[in-house]
Fold this sequence. Notes:
By secondary structure, this protein is α/β, with parallel strands linked by helices. It is built from 8 helices and 7 strands, in the order βαβαβαβααβαβααβ.
Amino acid sequence: MTDLKGKTALVTGASKGMGRAIAQRLAGDGALVAVHYGRDAEAAKETVAAIEQAGGEAFPVRAEFGTDGDVRTLLTGLTAGLQGLSLDILVNNAACGNQETVRAGSVDRLTPEQFDEVFAINVKAPLFLVQAALPLMADGGRVVNISSLATRVALPYQIAYAMTKGALEVMSRTLANALGARGITVNTVSPGATDTDVTDTLRDPEIRTVLTGLTALGRIGRPADIADAVAFLASDDARWVTGNVIDATGGAYLGPMWAR
Length: 260
Ligand SMILES: NC(=O)c1ccc[n+]([C@@H]2O[C@H](COP(=O)([O-])OP(=O)(O)OC[C@H]3O[C@@H](n4cnc5c(N)ncnc54)[C@H](OP(=O)(O)O)[C@@H]3O)[C@@H](O)[C@H]2O)c1
């Protein structure tokens, strides 16, 4: 556990999956957490309830990325929930949950509309969220962006999604340089296949076996694996780490297994 007592955090896409695990971990470490969600208010309520049952503090904030005024709506809810406190930790975790857009994205089938949708949610929203949140952010704050193994391993059916994650990594490095003067660190955590709602393909035992076989640590990732990496970057222990990508894939696609 790291000590985040007295700190505040915003986790986007915290109604489920990794975002929920990140919100629970940061709240468990003592932070007051804004649980952002897009459409699933019930799931966001469950995240908040789980945090409160464990003795933590959280509140929900709704904003659907990719719609008009998305960032403004989020900031309004965030500011109200923080009640005058500044923001210490911003985790850009939400990403396009539209399976059609994420998966049907091979170069021969991708439509301009799908491209625009996935970029609006995965790149434009996080960038302008950072811009809007900066006046609320404390010096010495933390920004953590959630990328994907898809920037390191080429997945032809996800071209636009993978491109958004590449853009997010460039954004992280650039922001790290821009915000260093205020002591704000900006880093990226890059998960591989992780058991969440978005990865229904992982329910297929054959796919699980193949992916497990390509992973040095020999299993599929769990949301808590990612949350723990984020908690490190959010903590004081990571004060000298900025502009980095932490590969949290369990060593996926590192190289041949027959040689070990
Ligand atoms: N799971 C994996 O294997 C994997 C691998 C590599 C990287 N990642 C990355 O890890 C992050 C978390 O993924 P996950 O698997 O935990 O996803 P998930 O379980 O599908 O959860 C996605 C979250 O993002 C929110 N969201 C989606 N579209 C949104 C929109 N238009 N506006 C606002 N919020 C929106 C959802 O909110 P609502 O449901 O409330 O709308 C939900 O809270 C993402 O950045 C993803 O790209 C995942």
